[in-house]
Amino acid sequence: MSFITLSPFNHFEFQGQLVFGSFRRDLFQQALFHQFQINYPTSLNNAVIKRKSEFLAGRICAKKALSSLSLQYESVQVHTGEMREPMWPAGIAGAITHTDQIAIAAISNLYQGVGIDIEHKMDHKTAKELTPMILTPSERTSNQYPLDETSWISLIFSAKESLYKALYPSVQRFFDFQAAKMIDIGERHFVIELQETLSEQLQQGIRFEGQYYWHDDQVITLITV
After folding, report:
1. From the CB of residue 32, how many other CB atoms can be counted at a distance below 10 Å?
2. CA–CA separation, 102 and 4 (whole Å)
3. Residues 207/213/187/210 CA torsion (nearest 10 deg)
4. Domain boundaries, the chain
5. Whether the Cβ atoms of residue 76 and residue 88 lie closer than 8 Å to each other
6. Could you give phi then psi for residue 120, rounded to 5 degrees?
7. How far from chain centre, in Å, is Cα 85?
8. 209 and 224 in contact (C-beta within 8 Å)?
9. What DSSP letter does each residue of 145-160 carry, written as one string?
10. What is the distance between the terminal CA atoms of the chain, rounded to a whole angstrom?
11. Tens of pLDDT, residues 82-110
12. How far, in Å, CA of 148 to CA of 176, rounded?
């Protein structure tokens, strides 16, 4: 049996490569880094198996996405930055996300930033505990969409994670969940708005359109800029 099974992800409109990987942590072995030609980072030396398997699965998806985009990237290694962000080749925008069984990589040479995220639907206890951190004051009273409370909060959490990944290469600094607000949610799309100015180009009030998809009890979001 294989550690990971890769497949295209065709649920989003995206000009680039989206690779979906379903992996099994119980089949992880450190020798798989060599087998898949992924450099083993020393930062994983003291990591638990869960972290190592998720990192490897994400990098395998990224490697496949890069090589599918162009053969010139076939041997490129995706290193990790100071904020644990993937370091892409010049001219490439991308992002990696994972849960404990799924990893996804989104790669493109047509965007300035790409953000993708996958989250398990929260239970009521977790949603209640995280609401003050995730939602702005206006978001806490604005759920007028056909979503139950935990789905609504999980979607906003994931959307803001995707926004952070898409904008971080431009702003090069941390910003929290209060920096953006969900404005609208459609059947498969959403609109999110900056609540603070992040840079000269990313002013308060700028809006971004994103996409979302429910995969069983997990929500996947994508934002491109």
Report:
1. 20
2. 9
3. 10
4. 4-111, 122-211
5. no
6. -70, 145
7. 11
8. no
9. SS--HHHHHHHHHHHH
10. 38
11. 888 899 999 999 999 999 999 999 999 99
12. 24
In the block, residue with structure tokens 């910003």:
175
pTM over 0.90: yes
What are 143-161's pLDDT values in tens digits?
666 678 899 999 999 999 9
Does residue 138 sit in helix, strand or coil? coil
The tokens describing 20, both together, are: 């979906």
User: Which tens digit of pLDDT belongs to each residue from 37-85?
Assistant: 999 998 899 999 999 999 999 999 999 999 998 877 878 889 888 888 8
The residue assigned the tokens 């959490």 is: 157
User: What CATH number should be reported for the domain whose range is 4-111?
Assistant: 3.90.470
The CA-CA-CA angle for residues 115, 116, 117, to 5°, reads 130
From CA 84, how far away is CA 99, in angstroms rounded?
16
Q: Which structure tokens are listed for 140?
A: 């806490």
Instruction: Report how far apart, in Å, the C-alpha atoms of 199 and of each of 101, 138, 160, 168, 176 are.
Output: 36, 23, 17, 11, 15
Pair 204, 180: CB distance under 8 Å? no
What are the tokens at 173?
Answer: 């600094």
Helical pair 149-171 and 124-134, crossing angle rounded to 10 deg:
40
